[in-house]
Amino acid sequence: MGRAFVYVILGGGVAAGYAALEFARRGGYSRGELCIISEEAVAPYERPALSKGYLLPEGAARLPGFHTCVGANDELLTTKWYKEQGIELVLGTKVISADVRCKTLLTATGETISYKTLIIGTGAWALKLQEFGIQGSDASNICYLRNIDDADRLVNAMKSCPGGNAVVIGGGYIGMECAAALVTNKIRVTMVFPEKHCMGRLFTEKIAEYYENYYTSRGVTFVKGTVLTSFERDTTGKVTAVILKDGRHLPADMVVVGIGIRANTSLFEGQLLMPMENGGIKMLLHSIKLFDGDIRRLEHVDSARRTARHAVASILEPSKTRDIDYLPFFYSRVFTLSWQFYGDNLGEVVHFGDFTSSSPRFGAYWVNKGRIAGAFLEGGSRDEYEAISVTVRRKAKVANMAELENQGLAFAIQESQTEAPDSGLAVVGKPTYGMACHSWCGCSSVNHCDWLLVWQEAPQVVNSG
């Protein structure tokens, strides 16, 4: 026994919600023809809320308040909304195998679900310490943060040790945002990671220094250049201390782990015409103009939202769907700080602004081949963030690096207020069919929500979230 749909969205992350909204607005299906299959027991929600508002000690975010698509200031897609739109939610359901040739999915309960068009948005799983052979990693006070069940476990762990000690393993998004939440909950925090500074894949040493100093002022201790090797546990199996490679023992009432993620691709390994590559599915896709066709893994909620819409458009109106014109975007909010980054951190770095103030406004440009490739800004206004995004999108030309440093933010503001010049760069027109890969990587961000693969009679488009 089984069910059949015209369109199946496999995975219930951010991209699933935004894809559903795009289907509903375009009217590309009839009632009962579209379903979302998700292992989670709730309708798609905005994952960034888990590492931000959900962990607050007061006024914490809770469902249904952050279902998609409120993260883009759009409709709140509750379970009632899906019912009204004739979209079936198949929740709490694990798909254990997929047959691409026969267009069927087999669930853990033995049901077969067939489809004509499949959108794969299976996202990723959080890397666990067990995968690195760390004994005792299944202790009840070791927490991860990937879904709402993880968030509930983390909240309960914090409540169980008020004023206690937490060790955060990892210095990426999850580590930084969870450390801030722990401090806000009046828990002492020690962060452990092997890199020289936090957010090593994005921050420069100078930028990282500011945030590390700020965190230190809030009571966070940084232990860099080492990793954990084992735990001390009590008679109930709970962790009481983290043992590091350098021999140190850190007392711990709870442990939060943010060491990366891996794409959920196992259902499709060996079935697709194209091989797996870089941890994801190698597939035909629309190239991203900003990178001139360069292959990247876009790992942020904003990408999940936008590429979900683009994927649905390519299904329903392929002749009208052009290359995705996407500006990579990352952001974070911790304590009283708030930063945004656009583009690519490639090339020579020029820092600007005040790195000493308690109410900072500073940033950096990345200049590659004489043009702005990326820009970072802490403490900006809406207009200032818009200015740096425009500057990156235009690949603004830099004539003099010293002058750029002197102008700082004023360079972006001035650029955004001028008419867009002819950059002389080639603009990609209609989609070109070539081989490329978008997937997830090991950056420990809860914001990395979904990657999308549209599979019909033949491969059509893949988009990463």
From TrEMBL:
Domain of life: Eukaryota
Pfam families in the record: MDHAR3-like_C (PF21791), Pyr_redox_2 (PF07992)
EC number per UniProt: 1.6.5.4
Residue ranges of every copy of the Monodehydroascorbate reductase 3-like C-terminal domain listed in the record: 327-412
GO cellular component: a single term: cytoplasm
InterPro entries for the chain: FAD-oxidoreductase/Apoptosis, FAD/NAD-bd_sf, FAD/NAD-binding_dom, FAD/NAD-linked_Rdtase_dimer_sf, MDHAR3-like_C
GO molecular function: monodehydroascorbate reductase (NADH) activity
Keywords per UniProt: FAD, Flavoprotein, NAD, Oxidoreductase, Redox-active center
Names of the cofactor(s): FAD
Class in the EC hierarchy, top level: oxidoreductase
Catalytic reaction equation(s): 2 monodehydro-L-ascorbate radical + NADH + H(+) = 2 L-ascorbate + NAD(+)
Residue intervals of the FAD/NAD(P)-binding domain: 7-282
SUPFAM superfamilies: FAD/NAD(P)-binding domain, FAD/NAD-linked reductases, dimerisation (C-terminal) domain
PANTHER family: APOPTOSIS-INDUCING FACTOR 1, RIESKE DOMAIN-CONTAINING PROTEIN-RELATED
Assigned protein family: Belongs to the FAD-dependent oxidoreductase family.
Protein name: monodehydroascorbate reductase (NADH)
Source organism (scientific name): Panicum miliaceum
Lineage: Eukaryota, Viridiplantae, Streptophyta, Embryophyta, Tracheophyta
